[in-house]
Design a protein that fits this description.
This protein is an alpha+beta fold. The chain has 17 helices and 12 strands. The chain has a 6-stranded mixed beta sheet with strand order 1-2-6-3-5-4, with helices on both faces. Helix 2 (90-97) crosses helix 8 (214-224), helix 10 crosses helix 16 and helix 12 (361-377) packs across helix 16. The N and C termini lie far apart (116 Å).
Length: 495
Amino acid sequence: MKTTPMKFGTLPLLPIAILSLAVGVFAQAPQATPPPPAAPRTVQFPKPAEKILPNGLRVVVVQRSEMPLISSQLLIKSGGEVDPAEVSGAADMTAALLTRGTTTRSATQIAEAIEALGGSINSGGRWDSSAVSVDVMSSRIGPAMEILADVVRNPAFKDEEIDRLRRQYLNNLKVSLGQPGAIARFAAARVVYGDGPYGHPLSGTPESLSRIKRDDILKVHGTFYRPGNAILVIGGDVSAESGFALAQKYFGDWQGDPTTVMLDSLALGQTSTTNTPRVLVIDMPDAGQAAVMAVRSGINRNSPDYFRGIVSNSILSGYSGRLNWEIRVKRGLSYGAGSTLDMRRSAGSFSASAQTKNESGAEVASLTLAEISKLASGDLPDTELTTRKASLNGGFARGLETTGGLVGQISSLAIYGVNFDQLNQFVGSVQAVKAEDVKSFAATHLSIDSTSVIVVGDARKFLPALQKAFPQVEVIKVSELDLNSATLRHAVSKN
């Protein structure tokens, strides 16, 4: 029997034809415009419960029972701002050393005990506070709180641990001082805060770290680590009654000098910033890029302009913010540009920064100031304001998704004496900010007339262009940089 062969020659062309037709249809369709942000939704977070123990310890408990987790932070209301000038970094080292051994446990034993509970423990210094935190399953909160109390109340501060931590800090600082961006940030603190309590690097300088002794650590701990200067925040799967009972059990007999730590006695009452602008170049000949920063004084955390401030900053910062759009997206001069509104207890600062090739350092400096200036005088369309508010509210919401995030927010409000209601008022307060509020804030608090410019990089590649735009330029060789002084220059020997 003779069979007729099947002919497949034209069949493979059919899928290709269909694919080509689909590609052609999609290629001709206009690109869809992203939908506008949905209307913001308010969320009600549980109201924290408070109690002050007889020894003066403030206890805050916030219950969230969706997951069997608890996060707890013991906050000391003093941080790097209390450092004596000659031993800056002492407060941060004190906080970091808490988990490196107590009078009954070594650092290894602390780590093993927390690991056996399936939890974590961390400690460190900040500006305006020092903190130790534990995160653990709610069923194991008792043993975890016992460890938390032990590291706060009975640290050993062994010389070998101090020396080991000092070496780590010095190594980290050595790496940072080889990076233009880090140098710019260190210099910015001195430009804004001068010789004040916030002027030095939080973790100290090479000179100050070398001077810190065990007695300095003991003095910081003895002066500030006491119940009357502390806040215990417990959040998660725990009732207010249970939280207060835990606080009483593990911290109720914590004793300390009942005298209140007066901020004014630590010169924080006189903490000030300077609005005298500087144009500062730190010459780093081997730098592959230039770090550009515009910096000035800002507002403190309790300012009535808080929400106007964070909305104003959101217009400038973020991927779709004006700085990044102008410097990166439109011109390709940087991998990223943004700004920060840093608010503290007694002072604050605003900074805008970007890294670029050395040759475009002057151009990026001018563009940065121009975008800041336009915030006060230019147009602010409703579409732009709406999207930036949405981004701000979205970031806030994401930060509260975890128990640790919620406790972190409550802790921050407690440290700065802000009403806890602000947590539930956040979205509404952001939405209430209008374009004219942003312009008013920018004109009052972000004026470029009192903004300093810092450029760190290979000066020979950008200095001539920078001097055309800014005649009064200071130049400091990186080898002559002194982070211990507001002048940022090593004193010239008279010998």
